[in-house]
Write a structure and sequence with these properties.
- The chain has about 100 residues and is an all-alpha fold.
- It has one domain.
- Helix content is about 85%, strand content about 0%.
Length: about 100
């Protein structure tokens, strides 16, 4: 069960991060919309790193190095999730306000 969830999450977040990365850097995209899309990319990458960190705890032998690497990956992933979510909602609010003002 865990391997199916893990593999699906890793593949989905990897595809999403590549898609959002390419989509945000296209020519002609509004700067605020581009920043909003980069926030989505950070959310996908945070999920990917968090899943890698959680996966380290599923191995049979848990030595000190594996635990430290897993904790570092978890911390980096959660921080990336938090900052990506914060940036996404911040730039979405600014973008929607600019679109209302422009109309």
């Amino acid at each position: 069960m865990w391997s199916a969830f893990y593999l699906t999450g890793v593949l989905a977040s990897l595809v999403a991060s590549v898609y959002f990365s390419i989509h945000a850097r296209r020519q002609g995209t509004h700067p605020l919309a581009s920043r909003m899309i980069l926030g989505k990319m950070n959310i996908a990458l945070g999920l990917l790193v968090t899943l890698f960190g959680i996966n380290q705890f599923t191995f049979e032998e848990l030595d000190t190095i594996r635990i430290v690497v897993a904790l570092v990956m978890l911390v980096v992933g959660v921080i990336n999730l938090y900052l990506g979510t914060r940036n996404y909602f911040r730039f979405k609010t600014l973008w929607l306000a600019e679109m209302k003002k422009g109309v």
